[in-house]
Design brief:
Blueprint: E1 2-7, E2 10-13, E3 18-26, E4 31-39, E5 46-52, E6 57-59, E7 67-72, E8 77-82, E9 91-99, E10 106-107, E11 111-116
Parallel strand pairs: 2-11
Antiparallel strand pairs: 1-3, 3-8, 4-5, 4-9, 5-6, 7-8, 9-10, 9-11
């Protein structure tokens, strides 16, 4: 059983910053990657950022230069530092975990981020 605990969402004004955290626990032996996806109302879930256990990062074009993803492997925790937030960043943000021992990724329950103009 794997659990993902997300935190850090909230309501902020445009131009503000937020930091999301996600800690993985349970039967985890080898993390390949962790990341964040988001889903706005009426939209499909989309990749925001991912990071491999080796530190290779990938960002959606819409957040590049504003968001930064990092991982603390000792704590099985991934962070998403979000700066210069825009109203279009409003969405539910889901933590994502890819492990070597499972054929499918895990997702957290999501944390709401709302950016007002």
């Amino acid at each position: 059983q794997v659990q993902l605990m997300e935190s850090g969402g909230g309501l902020v004004q445009a131009g503000s910053s937020l930091r999301l955290s996600c800690t993985a626990s349970g039967n985890i032996f080898s993390i390949n990657a962790m990341g964040w996806y988001r889903q706005a109302p009426g939209e499909q879930r989309e990749l925001v950022a991912t990071i491999t256990s080796g530190g290779i990062t990938r960002y959606a074009g819409s957040v590049k230069g504003r968001f930064a993803i990092s991982i603390d492997k000792a704590k099985n925790t991934v962070y998403l530092q979000m700066n210069s937030l825009k109203p279009e960043d409003t969405a539910v943000y889901y933590c994502n975990l890819v492990v070597q021992e499972a054929p499918y990724p895990y997702y957290g329950q999501g944390t709401q981020v709302t950016v007002s103009s």
